[in-house]
Amino acid sequence: MTRAVQLSNAKAGVIYEYDEDAQRFARISGAYGLDEDLRAVLSAAPLRLGEGAAGQAAAQQAPVQVADVLAEGTYDVTRVRTIFEQHGYRSLLAVPLLFERQIVGVLVVWGREPARFAQDIVDLLQTLATQSVLAIQNARLFREIADKSRQLEVASQHKSEFLASMSHELRTPLNAILGFNEMILGQIYGEVPPGLQEPLADIQSSGRHLLRLINNVLDLSKIEAGRMELALADYSVQDTVGSVRVSLRSLAEDKGLEFVAAVPEDIPLAHGDGGRIVQCLTNLAGNALKFTRRGRVEIAVELRGDLLVYRVADTGIGIAADKIGALFAEFRQGDATISHEFGGTGLGLSITKKFVELHGGRIWVESELGRGSTFLIEIPLRLDGGTKA
Amino acid sequence: MSAKTILYVEDNELNRKMLRHLLRGTSYRLIEAPDGETGMTMAREQHPDLILMDVQLPKISGIEATRALRAEPSTAHTPIIAITSFALSGDEQRAKEAGASAYLAKPYSPFALLGMIQKLVPE
Protein backbone atom coordinates (compact mmCIF):
# COMPACT_ATOMS: atom_id res chain seq x y z
CA MET A 1 0.00 0.00 0.00
CA THR A 2 2.83 2.35 0.89
CA ARG A 3 4.41 1.75 -2.50
CA ALA A 4 1.14 2.30 -4.32
CA VAL A 5 0.65 5.65 -2.62
CA GLN A 6 4.23 6.81 -3.17
CA LEU A 7 4.40 5.71 -6.81
CA SER A 8 1.15 7.43 -7.67
CA ASN A 9 2.20 10.53 -5.70
CA ALA A 10 -1.05 10.29 -3.78
CA LYS A 11 -2.06 11.56 -0.32
CA ALA A 12 -3.44 8.28 0.97
CA GLY A 13 -4.53 4.87 -0.13
CA VAL A 14 -6.52 1.94 1.06
CA ILE A 15 -7.39 -1.66 0.17
CA TYR A 16 -10.96 -2.71 0.89
CA GLU A 17 -11.91 -6.34 1.10
CA TYR A 18 -15.18 -7.22 -0.51
CA ASP A 19 -17.70 -9.37 1.36
CA GLU A 20 -19.50 -11.39 -1.28
CA ASP A 21 -22.46 -12.36 0.93
CA ALA A 22 -23.13 -8.86 2.28
CA GLN A 23 -22.26 -7.23 -1.10
CA ARG A 24 -20.19 -4.53 0.56
CA PHE A 25 -16.62 -3.59 1.46
CA ALA A 26 -16.70 -4.86 5.01
CA ARG A 27 -13.05 -4.60 5.91
CA ILE A 28 -10.02 -2.38 5.37
CA SER A 29 -7.09 -4.73 5.00
CA GLY A 30 -4.36 -2.24 4.23
CA ALA A 31 -4.05 1.53 4.46
CA TYR A 32 -1.48 4.30 4.14
CA GLY A 33 -1.94 7.91 5.21
CA LEU A 34 -5.61 7.30 5.86
CA ASP A 35 -7.24 9.92 8.12
CA GLU A 36 -8.93 8.47 11.17
CA ASP A 37 -12.18 10.33 10.32
CA LEU A 38 -12.32 8.64 6.94
CA ARG A 39 -11.46 5.24 8.41
CA ALA A 40 -14.23 5.65 10.99
CA VAL A 41 -16.85 6.51 8.35
CA LEU A 42 -15.78 3.66 6.07
CA SER A 43 -15.82 1.14 8.91
CA ALA A 44 -19.12 2.28 10.43
CA ALA A 45 -20.97 2.46 7.10
CA PRO A 46 -19.02 0.41 4.54
CA LEU A 47 -19.44 1.16 0.85
CA ARG A 48 -21.76 -1.15 -1.03
CA LEU A 49 -21.31 -2.63 -4.49
CA GLY A 50 -21.90 0.15 -7.03
CA GLU A 51 -21.56 2.87 -4.41
CA GLY A 52 -18.79 5.47 -4.83
CA ALA A 53 -15.81 4.98 -7.13
CA ALA A 54 -14.74 1.78 -5.32
CA GLY A 55 -18.22 0.30 -5.66
CA GLN A 56 -18.32 1.21 -9.36
CA ALA A 57 -14.86 -0.21 -10.03
CA ALA A 58 -15.98 -3.46 -8.43
CA ALA A 59 -19.28 -3.54 -10.30
CA GLN A 60 -17.62 -2.79 -13.67
CA GLN A 61 -14.52 -4.89 -12.86
CA ALA A 62 -12.42 -2.04 -14.31
CA PRO A 63 -10.48 0.95 -12.94
CA VAL A 64 -12.56 4.06 -12.19
CA GLN A 65 -11.15 7.50 -11.59
CA VAL A 66 -12.50 10.87 -10.56
CA ALA A 67 -10.35 13.91 -11.38
CA ASP A 68 -12.07 16.18 -8.88
CA VAL A 69 -14.31 14.69 -6.23
CA LEU A 70 -15.53 18.15 -5.25
CA ALA A 71 -16.77 19.04 -8.75
CA GLU A 72 -20.55 18.95 -9.08
CA GLY A 73 -22.01 15.49 -9.84
CA THR A 74 -18.72 13.57 -9.81
CA TYR A 75 -18.89 11.99 -6.39
CA ASP A 76 -22.25 11.36 -4.79
CA VAL A 77 -21.55 9.55 -1.51
CA THR A 78 -22.27 12.42 0.89
CA ARG A 79 -20.86 10.86 4.07
CA VAL A 80 -17.49 10.30 2.39
CA ARG A 81 -17.54 13.49 0.34
CA THR A 82 -17.82 15.59 3.51
CA ILE A 83 -14.60 14.11 4.79
CA PHE A 84 -12.87 14.54 1.41
CA GLU A 85 -13.70 18.21 1.69
CA GLN A 86 -12.45 18.58 5.27
CA HIS A 87 -9.16 16.74 4.74
CA GLY A 88 -8.22 17.87 1.26
CA TYR A 89 -8.79 14.80 -0.90
CA ARG A 90 -9.41 15.88 -4.50
CA SER A 91 -8.68 13.12 -7.00
CA LEU A 92 -9.35 9.43 -6.74
CA LEU A 93 -8.42 6.21 -8.51
CA ALA A 94 -10.06 2.88 -7.75
CA VAL A 95 -8.65 -0.38 -9.16
CA PRO A 96 -10.60 -3.62 -8.64
CA LEU A 97 -8.90 -6.67 -7.13
CA LEU A 98 -10.07 -9.69 -9.06
CA PHE A 99 -9.48 -13.37 -8.52
CA GLU A 100 -10.78 -15.63 -11.27
CA ARG A 101 -13.22 -12.87 -12.30
CA GLN A 102 -14.56 -12.60 -8.77
CA ILE A 103 -14.25 -9.33 -6.84
CA VAL A 104 -11.94 -9.76 -3.88
CA GLY A 105 -11.57 -6.06 -3.06
CA VAL A 106 -10.66 -2.65 -4.39
CA LEU A 107 -7.48 -0.60 -4.14
CA VAL A 108 -8.09 3.15 -3.90
CA VAL A 109 -5.63 6.05 -3.88
CA TRP A 110 -6.51 9.68 -3.26
CA GLY A 111 -4.57 12.67 -4.61
CA ARG A 112 -4.27 16.16 -3.17
CA GLU A 113 -4.68 18.00 -6.49
CA PRO A 114 -7.64 17.86 -8.85
CA ALA A 115 -6.15 15.89 -11.77
CA ARG A 116 -6.49 12.58 -13.61
CA PHE A 117 -3.99 9.83 -12.83
CA ALA A 118 -1.73 9.08 -15.81
CA GLN A 119 -2.23 5.78 -17.67
CA ASP A 120 1.15 4.38 -16.55
CA ILE A 121 0.10 4.95 -12.91
CA VAL A 122 -3.18 3.13 -13.59
CA ASP A 123 -1.24 0.23 -15.13
CA LEU A 124 1.16 0.18 -12.24
CA LEU A 125 -1.61 0.08 -9.66
CA GLN A 126 -3.30 -2.71 -11.59
CA THR A 127 -0.09 -4.73 -11.30
CA LEU A 128 0.07 -4.02 -7.57
CA ALA A 129 -3.60 -4.95 -7.27
CA THR A 130 -2.93 -8.34 -8.83
CA GLN A 131 -0.24 -8.97 -6.24
CA SER A 132 -2.47 -7.93 -3.34
CA VAL A 133 -5.17 -10.35 -4.44
CA LEU A 134 -3.02 -13.27 -3.45
CA ALA A 135 -2.21 -11.79 -0.06
CA ILE A 136 -5.88 -11.08 0.60
CA GLN A 137 -6.89 -14.57 -0.51
CA ASN A 138 -4.31 -16.09 1.84
CA ALA A 139 -5.40 -13.96 4.77
CA ARG A 140 -9.01 -14.85 4.00
CA LEU A 141 -8.27 -18.59 3.92
CA PHE A 142 -6.34 -18.28 7.14
CA ARG A 143 -9.29 -16.58 8.85
CA GLU A 144 -11.65 -19.25 7.52
CA ILE A 145 -9.46 -22.03 8.88
CA ALA A 146 -9.20 -20.30 12.27
CA ASP A 147 -13.00 -19.87 12.32
CA LYS A 148 -13.58 -23.49 11.37
CA SER A 149 -11.25 -24.81 14.06
CA ARG A 150 -12.99 -22.64 16.67
CA GLN A 151 -16.33 -24.05 15.51
CA LEU A 152 -14.96 -27.58 15.66
CA GLU A 153 -13.70 -27.01 19.18
CA VAL A 154 -17.14 -25.85 20.29
CA ALA A 155 -18.81 -28.78 18.52
CA SER A 156 -16.45 -31.24 20.14
CA GLN A 157 -17.16 -29.68 23.52
CA HIS A 158 -20.90 -30.11 22.89
CA LYS A 159 -20.34 -33.68 21.79
CA SER A 160 -18.54 -34.69 24.95
CA GLU A 161 -21.07 -32.91 27.18
CA PHE A 162 -23.83 -34.70 25.31
CA LEU A 163 -22.10 -38.06 25.74
CA ALA A 164 -21.53 -37.47 29.43
CA SER A 165 -25.18 -36.67 30.11
CA MET A 166 -26.31 -39.42 27.75
CA SER A 167 -24.21 -41.92 29.62
CA HIS A 168 -25.82 -40.86 32.89
CA GLU A 169 -29.28 -41.19 31.35
CA LEU A 170 -28.44 -44.67 30.07
CA ARG A 171 -27.03 -45.77 33.38
CA THR A 172 -30.10 -44.87 35.44
CA PRO A 173 -32.45 -47.41 33.82
CA LEU A 174 -29.61 -49.91 33.64
CA ASN A 175 -29.25 -49.59 37.41
CA ALA A 176 -32.86 -50.70 37.81
CA ILE A 177 -32.57 -53.53 35.26
CA LEU A 178 -29.40 -54.96 36.78
CA GLY A 179 -30.50 -54.27 40.36
CA PHE A 180 -33.93 -55.90 40.17
CA ASN A 181 -32.52 -58.82 38.25
CA GLU A 182 -29.80 -59.34 40.81
CA MET A 183 -32.41 -59.24 43.59
CA ILE A 184 -34.50 -61.86 41.81
CA LEU A 185 -31.37 -64.02 41.47
CA GLY A 186 -30.59 -63.30 45.11
CA GLN A 187 -34.01 -64.74 46.11
CA ILE A 188 -35.35 -61.45 47.52
CA TYR A 189 -38.67 -62.32 45.88
CA GLY A 190 -38.59 -65.96 46.94
CA GLU A 191 -37.09 -69.02 45.42
CA VAL A 192 -36.12 -68.85 41.73
CA PRO A 193 -37.48 -71.78 39.67
CA PRO A 194 -34.53 -73.83 38.33
CA GLY A 195 -35.51 -73.17 34.71
CA LEU A 196 -35.23 -69.41 35.25
CA GLN A 197 -31.74 -69.41 36.73
CA GLU A 198 -29.95 -69.48 33.39
CA PRO A 199 -31.97 -66.83 31.51
CA LEU A 200 -31.75 -64.52 34.53
CA ALA A 201 -27.99 -64.99 34.61
CA ASP A 202 -27.95 -64.19 30.88
CA ILE A 203 -29.86 -60.95 31.51
CA GLN A 204 -27.28 -60.08 34.14
CA SER A 205 -24.26 -60.72 31.94
CA SER A 206 -25.79 -58.90 28.95
CA GLY A 207 -26.61 -55.93 31.16
CA ARG A 208 -23.04 -55.84 32.43
CA HIS A 209 -21.80 -56.05 28.87
CA LEU A 210 -24.00 -53.10 27.87
CA LEU A 211 -22.61 -51.14 30.80
CA ARG A 212 -19.04 -51.80 29.70
CA LEU A 213 -19.88 -50.57 26.20
CA ILE A 214 -21.42 -47.37 27.55
CA ASN A 215 -18.37 -46.80 29.73
CA ASN A 216 -16.04 -47.37 26.79
CA VAL A 217 -17.84 -44.85 24.60
CA LEU A 218 -17.73 -42.30 27.39
CA ASP A 219 -14.03 -42.95 28.06
CA LEU A 220 -13.15 -42.54 24.42
CA SER A 221 -15.11 -39.31 24.06
CA LYS A 222 -13.40 -37.90 27.13
CA ILE A 223 -9.99 -38.89 25.84
CA GLU A 224 -10.71 -37.29 22.47
CA ALA A 225 -11.95 -34.10 24.10
CA GLY A 226 -8.67 -33.99 26.05
CA ARG A 227 -10.57 -34.23 29.30
CA MET A 228 -9.33 -37.57 30.52
CA GLU A 229 -7.09 -37.30 33.52
CA LEU A 230 -5.37 -40.10 35.33
CA ALA A 231 -5.98 -40.58 39.05
CA LEU A 232 -2.40 -41.14 40.16
CA ALA A 233 -1.60 -43.13 43.28
CA ASP A 234 0.58 -45.99 44.43
CA TYR A 235 -0.80 -49.37 43.38
CA SER A 236 0.23 -52.96 43.81
CA VAL A 237 1.06 -54.75 40.56
CA GLN A 238 0.20 -58.09 42.20
CA ASP A 239 -3.26 -56.86 43.23
CA THR A 240 -3.83 -55.31 39.81
CA VAL A 241 -3.16 -58.55 37.96
CA GLY A 242 -5.03 -60.47 40.68
CA SER A 243 -8.21 -58.48 40.20
CA VAL A 244 -8.06 -58.96 36.41
CA ARG A 245 -7.75 -62.72 36.95
CA VAL A 246 -10.68 -62.81 39.35
CA SER A 247 -12.98 -60.86 37.05
CA LEU A 248 -12.22 -63.02 34.00
CA ARG A 249 -11.84 -66.40 35.68
CA SER A 250 -15.39 -67.55 34.98
CA LEU A 251 -15.09 -66.64 31.28
CA ALA A 252 -11.94 -68.79 31.03
CA GLU A 253 -13.62 -71.66 32.88
CA ASP A 254 -16.67 -71.49 30.62
CA LYS A 255 -14.45 -71.87 27.56
CA GLY A 256 -12.27 -74.52 29.16
CA LEU A 257 -9.13 -72.40 28.79
CA GLU A 258 -6.14 -72.36 31.07
CA PHE A 259 -5.79 -68.83 32.52
CA VAL A 260 -2.63 -68.11 34.46
CA ALA A 261 -0.87 -65.08 35.88
CA ALA A 262 2.79 -64.80 36.78
CA VAL A 263 3.87 -61.77 38.81
CA PRO A 264 7.27 -61.85 40.54
CA GLU A 265 6.94 -61.34 44.31
CA ASP A 266 9.61 -58.66 44.43
CA ILE A 267 8.01 -56.09 42.12
CA PRO A 268 7.76 -52.87 44.17
CA LEU A 269 4.72 -50.61 44.45
CA ALA A 270 3.97 -48.88 41.15
CA HIS A 271 2.75 -45.30 40.78
CA GLY A 272 0.08 -44.54 38.17
CA ASP A 273 -3.65 -45.00 37.65
CA GLY A 274 -4.13 -48.56 38.94
CA GLY A 275 -7.82 -48.59 37.98
CA ARG A 276 -6.97 -47.76 34.37
CA ILE A 277 -4.23 -50.38 34.26
CA VAL A 278 -6.79 -52.95 35.46
CA GLN A 279 -9.07 -51.74 32.66
CA CYS A 280 -6.28 -52.10 30.06
CA LEU A 281 -5.30 -55.59 31.20
CA THR A 282 -8.96 -56.65 31.39
CA ASN A 283 -9.38 -55.48 27.79
CA LEU A 284 -6.31 -57.38 26.61
CA ALA A 285 -6.94 -60.55 28.59
CA GLY A 286 -10.66 -60.41 27.75
CA ASN A 287 -9.77 -60.22 24.04
CA ALA A 288 -7.28 -63.04 24.44
CA LEU A 289 -9.92 -65.27 26.02
CA LYS A 290 -12.45 -64.24 23.38
CA PHE A 291 -10.19 -65.04 20.42
CA THR A 292 -8.83 -68.29 21.78
CA ARG A 293 -10.73 -71.54 21.22
CA ARG A 294 -8.31 -73.87 23.00
CA GLY A 295 -5.10 -73.61 24.93
CA ARG A 296 -4.11 -70.92 27.39
CA VAL A 297 -4.00 -67.25 28.19
CA GLU A 298 -1.22 -65.90 30.35
CA ILE A 299 -0.58 -62.56 32.02
CA ALA A 300 3.04 -62.00 32.97
CA VAL A 301 4.83 -59.01 34.45
CA GLU A 302 8.49 -58.12 34.31
CA LEU A 303 10.53 -55.19 35.62
CA ARG A 304 13.14 -53.91 33.14
CA GLY A 305 15.07 -51.17 34.88
CA ASP A 306 12.46 -48.56 35.79
CA LEU A 307 10.03 -49.83 33.17
CA LEU A 308 7.18 -52.17 33.92
CA VAL A 309 6.30 -54.61 31.15
CA TYR A 310 2.93 -56.39 31.14
CA ARG A 311 2.56 -59.31 28.71
CA VAL A 312 -0.75 -60.86 27.74
CA ALA A 313 -0.17 -63.96 25.62
CA ASP A 314 -2.67 -66.35 24.09
CA THR A 315 -2.73 -69.43 21.86
CA GLY A 316 -5.61 -68.02 19.82
CA ILE A 317 -6.33 -67.23 16.17
CA GLY A 318 -3.49 -64.71 15.83
CA ILE A 319 -3.40 -61.57 13.69
CA ALA A 320 -2.16 -61.27 10.09
CA ALA A 321 0.85 -58.98 9.69
CA ASP A 322 -1.05 -56.53 7.44
CA LYS A 323 -3.87 -56.17 9.98
CA ILE A 324 -1.69 -55.25 12.94
CA GLY A 325 -1.33 -51.58 11.94
CA ALA A 326 -5.06 -50.82 12.06
CA LEU A 327 -5.61 -52.81 15.24
CA PHE A 328 -5.48 -49.87 17.63
CA ALA A 329 -7.79 -47.59 15.62
CA GLU A 330 -11.35 -47.01 16.88
CA PHE A 331 -14.07 -49.43 15.79
CA ARG A 332 -11.58 -51.70 14.06
CA GLN A 333 -11.00 -55.37 14.49
CA GLY A 334 -8.43 -57.44 12.65
CA ASP A 335 -11.07 -58.77 10.27
CA ALA A 336 -14.68 -57.72 9.74
CA THR A 337 -15.81 -61.34 9.75
CA ILE A 338 -14.26 -61.75 13.21
CA SER A 339 -16.84 -59.51 14.85
CA HIS A 340 -19.58 -61.91 13.75
CA GLU A 341 -17.99 -64.87 15.44
CA PHE A 342 -16.42 -63.20 18.44
CA GLY A 343 -18.38 -59.95 18.93
CA GLY A 344 -17.04 -56.70 20.34
CA THR A 345 -17.02 -53.10 19.17
CA GLY A 346 -13.31 -52.69 18.65
CA LEU A 347 -13.17 -49.83 21.15
CA GLY A 348 -11.21 -51.72 23.80
CA LEU A 349 -7.82 -51.66 22.12
CA SER A 350 -7.93 -47.99 21.14
CA ILE A 351 -8.90 -47.03 24.69
CA THR A 352 -6.15 -49.27 26.07
CA LYS A 353 -3.61 -47.61 23.79
CA LYS A 354 -4.74 -44.14 24.90
CA PHE A 355 -4.41 -45.03 28.58
CA VAL A 356 -0.98 -46.53 28.04
CA GLU A 357 0.07 -43.34 26.25
CA LEU A 358 -1.34 -41.22 29.07
CA HIS A 359 1.03 -43.18 31.29
CA GLY A 360 3.86 -42.20 28.95
CA GLY A 361 4.19 -45.79 27.78
CA ARG A 362 3.73 -47.82 24.61
CA ILE A 363 1.78 -50.86 23.52
CA TRP A 364 2.58 -53.29 20.74
CA VAL A 365 1.74 -56.76 19.58
CA GLU A 366 3.71 -59.76 18.40
CA SER A 367 1.56 -62.16 16.46
CA GLU A 368 1.28 -64.57 13.59
CA LEU A 369 -1.88 -65.88 12.00
CA GLY A 370 -2.92 -69.15 13.64
CA ARG A 371 -0.12 -69.04 16.20
CA GLY A 372 -1.51 -66.82 18.93
CA SER A 373 -0.81 -63.23 19.91
CA THR A 374 1.20 -61.49 22.60
CA PHE A 375 0.28 -57.94 23.59
CA LEU A 376 2.89 -55.96 25.47
CA ILE A 377 2.46 -52.82 27.53
CA GLU A 378 5.51 -50.93 28.69
CA ILE A 379 4.99 -48.10 31.20
CA PRO A 380 7.18 -46.38 33.77
CA LEU A 381 7.06 -48.15 37.13
CA ARG A 382 6.54 -44.77 38.76
CA LEU A 383 4.79 -42.09 36.78
CA ASP A 384 5.47 -38.64 38.13
CA GLY A 385 2.87 -36.07 37.14
CA GLY A 386 0.10 -36.81 34.67
CA THR A 387 -0.05 -36.15 30.98
CA LYS A 388 -3.25 -35.04 29.32
CA ALA A 389 -4.62 -36.96 26.36
CA MET B 1 -32.68 -51.53 70.07
CA SER B 2 -35.03 -49.64 67.80
CA ALA B 3 -34.91 -50.03 64.04
CA LYS B 4 -32.29 -47.99 62.23
CA THR B 5 -33.63 -45.37 59.84
CA ILE B 6 -32.15 -44.93 56.37
CA LEU B 7 -32.89 -41.88 54.24
CA TYR B 8 -32.58 -42.47 50.49
CA VAL B 9 -32.34 -39.26 48.45
CA GLU B 10 -32.89 -40.27 44.81
CA ASP B 11 -35.05 -38.81 42.03
CA ASN B 12 -35.66 -42.05 40.17
CA GLU B 13 -38.71 -43.87 41.52
CA LEU B 14 -37.59 -47.29 40.26
CA ASN B 15 -34.29 -47.03 42.09
CA ARG B 16 -36.13 -46.11 45.31
CA LYS B 17 -38.51 -49.02 44.81
CA MET B 18 -35.50 -51.31 44.40
CA LEU B 19 -34.17 -50.28 47.79
CA ARG B 20 -37.61 -50.70 49.38
CA HIS B 21 -37.66 -54.28 48.14
CA LEU B 22 -34.07 -54.88 49.18
CA LEU B 23 -34.70 -53.72 52.76
CA ARG B 24 -38.03 -55.55 53.09
CA GLY B 25 -36.48 -58.56 54.77
CA THR B 26 -34.36 -56.45 57.12
CA SER B 27 -35.15 -54.40 60.22
CA TYR B 28 -34.11 -51.12 58.58
CA ARG B 29 -36.76 -48.43 58.22
CA LEU B 30 -36.57 -46.60 54.88
CA ILE B 31 -37.60 -43.00 54.32
CA GLU B 32 -37.34 -41.47 50.86
CA ALA B 33 -36.80 -38.05 49.32
CA PRO B 34 -37.08 -37.36 45.57
CA ASP B 35 -34.81 -34.28 45.56
CA GLY B 36 -32.00 -32.62 47.48
CA GLU B 37 -34.17 -29.99 49.16
CA THR B 38 -36.68 -32.50 50.56
CA GLY B 39 -33.76 -34.73 51.50
CA MET B 40 -32.17 -31.99 53.60
CA THR B 41 -35.44 -31.17 55.35
CA MET B 42 -36.04 -34.85 56.17
CA ALA B 43 -32.47 -35.25 57.42
CA ARG B 44 -32.90 -32.27 59.75
CA GLU B 45 -36.30 -33.31 61.06
CA GLN B 46 -36.07 -37.09 61.25
CA HIS B 47 -32.40 -37.65 62.15
CA PRO B 48 -31.79 -40.79 60.07
CA ASP B 49 -28.98 -43.14 61.11
CA LEU B 50 -27.67 -43.27 57.55
CA ILE B 51 -28.18 -41.23 54.39
CA LEU B 52 -27.88 -42.60 50.86
CA MET B 53 -27.32 -39.59 48.66
CA ASP B 54 -27.51 -39.71 44.88
CA VAL B 55 -25.05 -37.22 43.42
CA GLN B 56 -27.14 -36.04 40.47
CA LEU B 57 -30.35 -34.64 41.91
CA PRO B 58 -32.85 -32.00 40.87
CA LYS B 59 -32.88 -28.66 42.79
CA ILE B 60 -29.87 -29.17 45.06
CA SER B 61 -27.16 -31.59 43.91
CA GLY B 62 -26.17 -34.46 46.17
CA ILE B 63 -22.73 -32.91 46.59
CA GLU B 64 -24.15 -29.57 47.77
CA ALA B 65 -26.63 -31.32 50.06
CA THR B 66 -23.84 -33.42 51.59
CA ARG B 67 -21.71 -30.35 52.19
CA ALA B 68 -24.63 -28.50 53.79
CA LEU B 69 -25.53 -31.43 56.05
CA ARG B 70 -21.92 -31.73 57.18
CA ALA B 71 -22.03 -28.08 58.27
CA GLU B 72 -25.02 -28.60 60.57
CA PRO B 73 -24.36 -29.98 64.05
CA SER B 74 -27.36 -32.39 64.01
CA THR B 75 -26.21 -34.13 60.81
CA ALA B 76 -22.45 -33.47 60.89
CA HIS B 77 -21.69 -37.04 61.95
CA THR B 78 -24.45 -38.98 60.16
CA PRO B 79 -22.85 -41.50 57.80
CA ILE B 80 -23.54 -40.55 54.16
CA ILE B 81 -23.05 -42.94 51.23
CA ALA B 82 -22.74 -40.95 48.02
CA ILE B 83 -24.12 -42.72 44.97
CA THR B 84 -22.26 -41.50 41.93
CA SER B 85 -23.34 -41.93 38.35
CA PHE B 86 -19.94 -43.00 37.14
CA ALA B 87 -17.08 -44.39 39.17
CA LEU B 88 -14.44 -42.73 37.05
CA SER B 89 -15.89 -39.29 36.40
CA GLY B 90 -14.36 -37.59 39.40
CA ASP B 91 -17.69 -37.68 41.25
CA GLU B 92 -16.26 -39.79 44.03
CA GLN B 93 -13.50 -37.26 44.61
CA ARG B 94 -16.04 -34.45 44.85
CA ALA B 95 -18.27 -36.56 47.11
CA LYS B 96 -15.36 -37.27 49.44
CA GLU B 97 -14.38 -33.61 49.56
CA ALA B 98 -17.98 -32.71 50.40
CA GLY B 99 -17.81 -35.04 53.37
CA ALA B 100 -19.36 -38.33 52.22
CA SER B 101 -18.34 -41.34 54.34
CA ALA B 102 -18.34 -43.77 51.42
CA TYR B 103 -19.38 -43.89 47.79
CA LEU B 104 -20.86 -46.38 45.40
CA ALA B 105 -20.97 -46.10 41.61
CA LYS B 106 -24.14 -46.56 39.62
CA PRO B 107 -25.21 -49.07 38.46
CA TYR B 108 -24.62 -50.55 41.86
CA SER B 109 -25.23 -54.09 43.00
CA PRO B 110 -28.06 -53.97 45.57
CA PHE B 111 -26.26 -56.58 47.66
CA ALA B 112 -23.05 -54.55 47.62
CA LEU B 113 -25.08 -51.58 48.85
CA LEU B 114 -26.69 -53.70 51.56
CA GLY B 115 -23.22 -54.82 52.65
CA MET B 116 -22.09 -51.20 52.95
CA ILE B 117 -25.19 -50.25 54.93
CA GLN B 118 -24.70 -53.15 57.33
CA LYS B 119 -21.08 -52.19 57.85
CA LEU B 120 -21.80 -48.52 58.58
CA VAL B 121 -24.96 -49.04 60.69
CA PRO B 122 -25.33 -52.64 61.88
CA GLU B 123 -28.97 -53.74 62.27
Question: What would your notes on this structure say?
Answer:
- The complex is a heterodimer of chains A (about 400) and B (about 120).
- Chain A has helices at about 1-5, 35-45, 50-60, 80-85, 120-185, 195-225, 235-255, 275-290, 335-340, 350-360; strands spanning about 10-20, 25-30, 65, 90-100, 100-110, 235, 260, 270, 295-305, 305-315, 360-365, 375-380.
- Chain A is of the alpha+beta class and about 400 residues long.
- In chain A, the strands form 3 sheets. Chain A has a 5-stranded antiparallel sheet.
- The two termini of chain A are about 45 Å apart.
- With about 120 residues, chain B is of the alpha/beta class.
- Chain B contains 5 helices and 5 strands.
- Chain B has helices at about 15-25, 35-45, 60-70, 90-100, 110-120; strands at about 5-10, 30-35, 50-55, 80-85, 100-105.
- In chain B, strand 1, helix 1 (about 15-25) and strand 2 (about 30-35) form a beta-alpha-beta unit.
- In chain B, helix 2 (about 35-45) packs parallel to helix 3 and helix 3 (about 60-70) packs parallel to helix 4.
- The longest helix of chain B has 11 residues, at about 15-25.
- The model of chain B has no long low-confidence stretch (mean pLDDT about 90).
- The interface of A and B includes residues 173, 178, 182, 188 and 229 of A.
